[in-house]
Amino acid sequence: MLRLHLPDPPTDSEEEEEDVAEGAAAQSSRSSIPMDAEHVELVKRTMASVKLPTLGIPAWASQISEEQWKDVVQRTLQARQSLGGPRPEWK
Fold first, then answer.
1. d(CA 18, CA 40)
2. Nearest residue to 89 (alpha-carbon basis) of 4, 5, 16
3. Which of 11, 20, 5, 6 is nearest to 86 (CA)?
């Protein structure tokens, strides 16, 4: 069993929450760009050609499968939730 540490999510202050609310409104307008099928395919082809440098990949990452990694992350998140710790907000 791998013992991997996921950092705790940052805590929000009231000031940050106000900034986040303003930023969320701006982000929402930017994230709703209408895209036709041609643009969707262009984005897919572009993203498919992106290669990350292998130097940035930790050694343990090549030793486990994607499914094993997802399982580790899911169990860690469930353990945090059951302990009543801070919950990450997925958007």
1. 33
2. 16
3. 11
Total residues belonging to the chain: 91
SS (H, E, C) the chain: CCCCCCCCCCCCCHHHHHHHHHHHHHHHHHHCCCCCHHHHHHHHHHHHCCCCCHHHCCHHHHHCCHHHHHHHHHHHHHHHHHCCCCCCCCC
Query: How confident is the prediction along the chain (91 residues), in pLDDT tens digits per residue?
Result: 455 566 666 665 555 555 555 655 555 555 667 888 998 999 999 999 988 787 878 888 888 898 998 998 999 999 888 877 555 565 5
Tokens standing for 70? Answer: 């997802």
